[in-house]
Amino acid sequence: MKKLLLASALFLGHAAQAQKLTATERKIVASVQRNMPNSEQLLEQVVNINSGTLNVKGVREVGTVFQKEFEALGFKTEWVAMPVGMQRAGHLVAERKGSKGKRLFLIGHLDTVFELDMPAGKFTRLNDSTATGQGVNDMKGGNVVMLAALQALQANGLLKNASITAYFTGDEERGGKGPEARADFIARAKQADVALAFETATNLHTVATARRGASTWQLNTFGTASHSSGIFKPGVSYGAIYEAARILTDFRETLSQEQYLTFNPGLLVGGAEVNYDETKARAEVVGKTNIIAAAATVSGDLRFLTEAQKEAARTKMRAIVAQNLAGTRAEITFTDGLPGMAPTPGNQKLAALADQTSRDLGHGPVAAGNPGSRGAGDISYVAQYLDCLDGLGASGKGAHAAGETINLREFPMLVERAALMIYRLTR
Length: 427
What we know:
2 domains; Alpha-Beta Plaits; alpha/beta; elongated; 9 helices; Aminopeptidase
């Protein structure tokens, strides 16, 4: 009897929520549900194609699959080529021109972190609600969420006169160097009103109104090589390794408690001689326990919410680097990467739309997540130009690691939400 009452309550709850959808919106949801087997089949197809950033052929192959799907929806498609020396696949763009509603810029990426020589499995169902595979949620799942949402709209004749650009970069996980890598991406985004990015959803109830930016730094320290028995004596160098350790400790003690700011020394080498190849992230080191280290190199990242926070952190880091131990010197250089995506009132309005849409569907509330829980993403390149919302893609666990999963139970719900958000924005 209790189970019957619970089932009845759930049915009545969903029925009540459904009343908040228009007749057209209920048709959109029905189309999403009918097409879900095809959506999952497409997801399996693209997951089974390796598209590590440096596997140019694989990235293009995945892009070609999506290109055909978008052309079937009446989108005009093209590939934006990158300079040959960049060794990147380029970007896939699909566009529909119109004058109705907001002009949308939808963001995905074709590449994954899984290169050909890395362990990563094919698409595999673990149970009724979970599947695993390379890039299954980051972000091939997100790409399919976007496409499936548009397919549901097209099935009901609702893409007519909508202005939508779907932009799939080919090197989000390992961006090409130089302004050319995102010049076209930024230029097209500036022509839109709203950007929606389909990176991994933290869960069904969280979206991203802000994302941290990411940059890198390299610290080089120098000492004077001599016999280790003299260390700590007047006139004898403390050595490059102690100087590097001092700086890293001061970084941690001075900056580690600031909200949204993180910095990680990912590589450290030191000794009598150091030869560091930055392009390959490899080093050759020569040293002995009885020789004071003459050189050390540390490479790391710096993540931040705003440009002001980034610059303030760099200023403090430079000051720490300048306070050298006896007989040592140090220098630090910074390289910009992805900018930060700061929270804005416009972004919050989009989050409110996601929340209302989810509630109307009966899927529960949606709130803006903690920016500190996410890494950087392509949307940050354009966040200063238009209202933005991210985290609209597939949900799952273990992104960037072997065993990455997608939540298949939430997958259709996320497609429904995306479809109705796009529909409401383009009215």
